[in-house]
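#struct-pred

JT: dropping the chains for the assembly here, can someone run the whole complex?
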Amino acid sequence: MDMTAPLSAVLADADLCVKCGLCLPHCPTYRLTPHEAEGPRGRIALAQGLLGGTLAASPVLAGHLDGCLSCRACEAVCPAKVPYGRILDATRTALATPQRTRLTRIMGVVLESPFLRMLVRFGLWLSSASLDRVSRSHRERSRPKAPAALRLLDYRPIVRRLRAVPAPVHGTVALFTGCVGDVAERDVLHDAIRLFRAAGVQAAIPPNQGCCGALHQHSGLADAAANRAMHNAETFARYDAVLPLATGCGATLRDLGRTAQDGTPALAPKVRDLCTALADALDAQPPQWQPRSLRVGIHTACTQSNVFGAKEAIRHLLARLPGVTLIDLAPESGCCGAAGTAFITQPAQAAALLQPKLDAAAEVDVIVSANIGCSLHFLAGLRGLGLRAPVLHPVSLLAQALPA
Ligand code: SF4
Ligand code: SF4
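RK: done, full complex below.
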């Protein structure tokens, strides 16, 4: 079932819930409140009432559903395997109005316009929030750099600048950049390509790939999300492994790309966790790593843990680095609060959820996260405390240990 699931199928999904409550201790919003309607069991009951016609849409009902972080910690632990994410998305679609989806539609226009994306990149650079900028200040770069102003103006599609990648030795993987990856994480793309090259694998960046559709999916714009899923399925049709830079994008590619359509193979089965795929490649052909003494704080995004089932992927990837100490940042507190646009729409909740992780990060030299939304949320939180610890993609931290 994808975004256009019939109502009867969604209600059948919801009926799988036996209201046992085993998911409640794992729900970050329930733990914060704790209020039945701020937990998965309550939200499923609200969805059943709304979709079944026994409850009317209201600001209170919508507020409880909007408060959900879509972290899917509940789904991961549910013994009845209730597909909570699908139920929530269908319910948000039922609640969608032009007013409720305005922010998503504005963000969609901005992030899908090359010119406006260039302005976003400039804004991120100015505000020091750019992961590129932070990561550059943290390491010695091996490739020549243009002056900052020229780098900002260089907005050619990144694929054109990477055509000189050597022919594959052990196969080809495709990197999914989404709409934010080549705005805020261009260096991560270069680092991923360098690492795969060291493992004898070519990493391609197919042109014309588009937004994963996550913003639209989680705002109830089902048709817009489905269109983006179809576009990406066609773009990546010839690749066997699709590796998203951000785990949040990857989760959406998996959710929306379950079925083949009109001769285009389904995308979901090909989407893998980048850290896991890279670790597999490096295990097969390990490079020599440069040792360094570093305390690394690991933040595992909800999507990496609960959708990809890759809770230990960052630790497994970075454990090969000699000299580093790996510290999980308050994993028991779950979601950091970034959660798509939740850090914008629910700032108080987002700050409360981030705090235990910031406390745990007090003694680390660097924080790693494989999801751009979490990384930006961490950066903002650290800056609010006057801390300058860099936040890197684990791929970039690993690439720093490659021989020059
Ligand atoms: S979602 Fe699953 S764990 Fe939570 S109350 Fe329903 S059946 Fe129990
Ligand atoms: S997705 Fe996360 S925030 Fe939403 S109900 Fe489930 S555990 Fe709670």
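JT: nice. The chain has three domains: 7-95, 105-277, 287-399. Strands lie at 172-176, 202-204, 242-244, 294-299, 324-328, 366-369, 391-392.
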